[in-house]
Amino acid sequence: GEALEVTREVNCVTDFIHGCEDQLQKLKKQKEKGLLYGIPVSIKDHINCKGHISSGGMVKFLGQVMEEDSVIVQVLKSQGAIPFVKTNNPQTMINYDCSNLIFGQTLNPLNHQKSPGGSSGGEGALIAGGGSILGIGSDVAGSIRLPSSFCGLCGLKPTGNRISNYETACSDRTFVLPVTGMLGPMARDVDSLALCMKALLCEEMFRLDPTVPPIPFDEEVRLRGNPM
């Protein structure tokens, strides 16, 4: 409900992920409670979700419905999270704003005259507007960090290849960049980012994507106040 209100105001959601309710019922029956049990998570548009498109803001990808969840979505679900919406990004995602010809312009919920930043601008706008408490964005040259800054949030671009990039719209079919693009969390506080990273860096991810070094989250490093 909150997400719907926020997107009516600032146009940040591109799609609602069907099957949320089914997943919640499935979770309730599980004995093992994941680290993100019951937490609704918003997902940047280009990250594959089964049964949905991953346009990256480009018309040419509108006809391609994804057959499988990307690794990060599978891992989020295995940890009890509930991916519930996909959020807007600029065309090709190489932009510090957040608009494209399919879904239009996303506004900054703190000031409608301003941009929420990009390219994870839909995430920034939705979380800052109160429609999500945890989101997954992506960052090559500031695409998590800029919208986090513009919208007054916390965001983390993890070290290259720390989290699986497998099966995201632009990981394999649009361009190759000299800097490693990374998926990462966005939230209102650092503790939420740390919890999300701890949840993602699990055996399930290392099993699903053997190219990711199997290094778990180091709680001691975080508590010392060093970078994650």
Structural classification: alpha/beta
Q: How many strands?
A: 8
- How would you describe the shape? globular
**Main sheet properties:** 6 strands, mixed
Low-confidence stretches: none
Strand content: 5-15%
Q: Average pLDDT across residues?
A: 92
Give the N-terminus to C-terminus distance in angstroms: 33 Å
CATH superfamily: Amidase signature (AS) domain
Tell me the number of structural domains: 1
Q: Helices and strands, in N-to-C order?
A: HEHEHEEEHEHEEHHH
The CATH topology comes to: Amidase signature (AS) enzymes
* Rounded radius of gyration (Å): 16 Å
Helical residue percent band: 25-40%
Main β-sheet, spatial strand arrangement = 1-3-2-6-8-7
GO molecular function, one term: amidase activity
Domain Amidase: 6-214
InterPro entries: Amidase_CS, Amidase_dom, AS_sf, Endocannabinoid_amidase
Protein name: VDHAP protein
